[in-house]
Amino acid sequence: MKKIILSILAFSMLAVSCEDFIEKEQRGTQTLDNYFQTAQECENYTNELTQRLLLSKDWYTLLAPRLVNETATDDAWMGNTGQDNGAFRPGAQYVITPDNMGALNSLYTAHYYTIQSANIGLEKMAVSPITDTQKNQYMGESLFVRAYCYYELVNFFGAVPLYTKSLGTGDLKLQRSPATEVYAQIEADLKESAAKLEGIPVARNGRINKWAAYALLARVSLFQEKWAEAKQYSNKVITEGPYSLEENFLNIWNVNNHNGKESILEAQSSSVQNEALGSMLPTFSGARGEDKKNFPSNDAKDVIDGWGWCMPTSDLENAYLSENDEIRRRSTITKWGEAAYGDEVLNPTHKFSLNDNKSGRICRKYYIPIATRRALDKKDGHLPLNVPLIRLAEMYLTRAEASYHTSGDALADINIIRDRVDLDPKTGISGPTLLKQIYKERRLELAFEGLRLFDIRREKDPTTGKRVIETLMGPNGTFVKYNLSSTDPYETTNTKESQDKGINFDPSKHLLWPIPQIERDLSDGVITQNPNY
C-alpha cells in the first residue's frame, strides 16, 4: 500500500474491506457479512461505540488528552511534580509542536477508529433483519457517537477529514474539510439521531436518547454563535425533557447516584470485582501520596494510590471565593488539610504528598468516598465513578448566553443555577457585565467537566472583542500575571512545575492544537497543518 493510507484507519481497514483480505469462506467465523443479524449483535456493537465516547476504563487513549485540555486552562495545573510530565507538558505549557503533542496525539487516532466503526455499523444495521424500532434505536445511538467524535475533533483541531461511509483501501486520500462542513455534518447526524430515537423510551441506564442529541445540538449551536438555535434546543431540553436539577450540587458526581435526575448522558462505570469496569479518572486525578496515618481509621483500605494529574489552581478557587460560593467550591476543590466535602467524618483532614502536588489541591468531583473505598477489595480499574458528559445545568447556561444575544431573560437562568447552591440572585446587571457573569457561572458550575478550554477559546471579551483565552494567557495575560505575583502557600513553594503557566500561549496558533505530524507524513502532505505550527 502507498504511504497515502492514513495510519488512523489502519486498524479499521481490516474490518472494512473484507473482500480485500478474505478470499475464501471461513466457516464458523463471524465476519461483517454474517454479523448484525440479530438485535443482540446490533446492540453489542452499539454499546461498544458508546463506551468509546470516554473510554473511562482506559487512562491514556481519551482520558489523558481530555485532562490535558483542562491543564491548558486557568482551572488546572498539570499537578503531578513527582513524575515525568511528557504526556501533559506540551499542551499545558503551550510548547506543543506537531512532532511533540504528548497525550493529545491519541485522541485524533482513537476518534477516527470510532468514526470508521460507526460508519460500518450504520451501513450494516440499515439492512439488518431486525425490526424498524430496533434499527432506529441502534442507528440513532451510533449517529450520536459519530457526531460526538466530530464535535471533539473540530474543537481540538479545527478542519479535519470528514467522511460518513466506511472506507476501503482505495478510498483513503482524505483532505481536511472546513470546520463549517464538519459542524454541518454534526448537526445533520444529531437531528437524524433525535428523529430515530423519538419513540424510544428514555431509561436512566446510560443509553443515548433523543435528549442527548438535542442537548449536544444546543452545545454545538452555541459554539458556532447560532444563538437562536442554541436557545431553541436548550429550551427544548429544559421544558420538554424528563430532567431536573439535583437539589444537592454534590450529588451530581455521587458514586451512589449514577445517572441521576440531572444527568442527560454520562459514561458508565462499575465496581464489579471480577471485571475491570471502573473508571480510571479517580486514579488518574486522585491525590498522590495518600497515607493511612492521615485517616482516622489508620487503615490501608481507606487509601487510593492516585496519580495526581490535573490539579485545581488557586485562581479557580478565588473565582468561587469572589462569589461566596462555598457549595460549588467545596464540591469542586479540596485543599490540603481540609475535610473532604460530604465525607467529613471519615476524611476530616484530607492530606497527601505536597512534594508531589503543585497546588496543594485536588478535584473533589473526581473523589471516591472512604466508605466506597472500604467496600472494594480491588480499587484500580474498579472505581464506580460515572463521568457526566452532558447535564441539565449546562442547558440553563446555554439558554442564558443565547438569550443575552437574542432576547430573553438571561438573568433568570443564571439565578436558577445560583439558587441551587444557595447564592443570592444577580439583579440589575446588563450589557458586558451580564455576559461576563454568564461566562463566570459556566466556569464555576462546569469546572473539570471538559468545557473550559473550548469555552475560553470561543468566548469573546465584550469590552475588547478578543477571545477570552487571549486575555488570560500569554506574557500579558491576567492569569499569567496573577501566578507570577501570587503568594499562594502551596503553588509558590512547589516550583517543580513552572509558575509562569500559560506564558507561552500564542494567539496566532494556539486557538487550535496542531494536526499530528505522523498523520501528515503518512498522507504525503494531503492533510495540511494548522497555521503557524
Written description of the protein model:
- This protein has 533 residues and is mainly α.
- The chain is built from 21 helices and eight strands.
- It has helices at residues 10-16, 18-21, 39-51, 59-71, 89-92, 104-126, 132-157, 179-196, 210-223, 227-240, 281-284, 314-322, 326-332, 370-374, 392-405, 410-420, 431-446, 452-458, 468-472, 478-485, 517-522, and strands at 76-77, 160-161, 176-177, 263-267, 311-312, 333-335, 361-363, 387-391.
- The chain has a two-stranded antiparallel sheet with strand order 1-5.
- Helix 7 (132-157) runs antiparallel to helix 8 (179-196) and helix 15 runs antiparallel to helix 16 (410-420).
- The longest helix is centred in the first third of the chain and has 26 residues, at 132-157.
- The two termini are 29 Å apart.
- The relative contact order is 0.13.
- Residues 1-25 have low confidence and may be disordered.
Helix-strand sequence: HHHHEHHHEEHHHEHEHHEEHEHHHHHHH
| Low-confidence residue ranges | 1-25
Compute the gyration radius: what is it?
23 Å
Q: What would the average pLDDT be, to the nearest integer?
A: 92
Query: What is the quaternary state of this protein?
Result: single chain
Largest sheet composition:
2 strands, antiparallel
The structural class is: mainly alpha
Provide key terms for this protein.
two-stranded antiparallel ribbon, disordered N terminus, signal, SusD_RagB_dom, 21 helices, 533 residues, 8 strands, SusD-like_N, mainly alpha, globular, 5% strand
